[in-house]
Amino acid sequence: MQKSVVLVTTCLALLMGVSASAATKNPTPANKYRYAAKKAAYYNKSTSAYYRSIWTSARNAWNKSKSFKWSATKNRKSRTFTTSVSKTTGIWTNATGMAYNGMSFDQNGRQTGAAMYLNRAILKKYKYNKKQRNNVAIHEMGHALGLGHNNAGSVSVMNPANRNHALRNVDIKGAQKIYRTTASTKSTLATAAQPTLTVDHLKDYSNGIYGVEALRKDAGTIVEGTITKSVGHHKAPKNYYTTQTLRVTDHFKGLSGKTVTFTQGGTTAMAVTDSEVLHRGENVVVMLAKNAQGNDYVINDGQGMFIDTYTNNGHELFEHVSDHEIYTEDMLH
User: Fold this and answer.
1) Average model confidence (pLDDT) for the chain?
2) Per-residue pLDDT for 70 more than 70?
3) Which of 35, 38, 25 minimizes the C-alpha distance to 67?
C-alpha cells in the first residue's frame, strides 16, 4: 500500500508555551514512531569514507549513552539506513539533513525502518566542521529512534537547527522515556501508520534569534499581499539588496495603501547575504520599518518576512524565511 508523506516543521518555543531554559531541563519530546525495542540495525549507504565515519561516530555517541543501541549491518536490503546526498534545490534548500521515520512497519504499526540523510552540499557551503557534522548525524539518528525536536534555543542535539550541541542529558532522558514502556501492539496502528519526513534546516541568519513577538512589536507596518515585482541589484548566488513591490490584500498595522515597495536591508548599500529574496507571485506577510530617508525595509535585516505555504485545518500557515518556523496568520499581527 502506498503511504503519503507528511512534512513536519517545528515551531518556536514561544509558540509551544515552553521556554528555552525549560526545554533544556525537560526530556526531549518524542515524535510519532519508535522501534519495538531500544535497538535497531542500519545499513550505511554512504560511499564516502568521510561520511561513513560521521555516521559511525554518531552511532557510537548514542551507544555510549546506553539509551539506544544502533548496530551496523551489511544487509543492503535493510529498511533502516544512513546515507548522504548533495542537493541545494526544492525541499533540500538549506537543509542540513533529513530523517524519514516509518519507512516500514510491522503488523502492529511499530516502526521497522527509517532513513537518515546528511546533505553534503549545505554542510560544505556553510563550513560545518567534522564535529558539527557529527552533531547533525546524531540529530538525524535521534529522529529515527523516535525523538522529535527540542525547542528553539535549547541546549540539545535535537535543537531544530542544531550545529554546535552534542548529545545532551535531555536527549538521553527523552530516549529513555520512549523506551521505558513497551511498544503498543494495537493492530489498528498498522492501518493508520504512514511515513513522516522531518527536514532539518540551518539558521540562515547571522544576527541572532529575534522572536516574532519582538518583530511584531517593533515593526511600524505589517501587511499581507502578493509580490508583483522583484528587482535584484546584485548578482546571484548571494541575496543582496533587492527591491520588492507588494500588492496589499490585508492591513494589520500601519500602512493603508494598495501597494508598498520595500528593500530587504535598511539601506541600499547593505548586503543582506543571509536573507531570502521574495519572488513574483508569492503571497507573504512582511513586517516593515522606515530608514532615515523614509523608505520601507524588512525589519531586522530581512527577518520580518513570512511566506504563505499551505492551509491546515482552516488556518493559513506562513513559513518564517529566517529559520523556517511555521506560524498561523493571526500570530503575525
Assistant:
1) 79
2) yes
3) 38
Pairing between strand 326-328 and 305-312? unpaired
User: For 55, left (φ over 0), alpha (ψ -120 to 50), or beta?
Assistant: alpha
CA distance 43 to 80: 6
Provide the 3-class DSSP secondary structure of residue 176.
Answer: helix
Closest CA to 28 of 123, 168, 182: 168
Question: What per-residue confidence (pLDDT) applies to 333?
Answer: 81
Share of the chain above pLDDT 70, in %: 74
C-alpha cell at 216: 511584531
Residue type, 211: G
Q: What are phi and psi of 58, to 5 degrees?
A: -65, -45
User: pTM for this one?
Assistant: 0.59
**Above 80 in pLDDT, residue 310?**
no
Q: Is 233 exposed, middle or buried (0-12, 13-18, 19+ CB in 10 A)?
A: exposed
CB distance 157 to 166 below 8 Å: yes
Q: Angle, nearest 10°, between helix axes 49-65 and 169-179?
A: 70
Instruction: Please list the residues that pair with 246 across neighbouring strands.
Output: 227, 260
Distance CA 317, CA 258 (A): 23
Q: Nearest CA to 176 among 310, 302, 46, 28?
A: 28
pLDDT number for residue 66: 97
Q: Fill in the DSSP letter of residue 17.
A: T
Instruction: Classify residue 27 by its DSSP letter.
Output: P
Read off the C-alpha cell for 196. 513522516
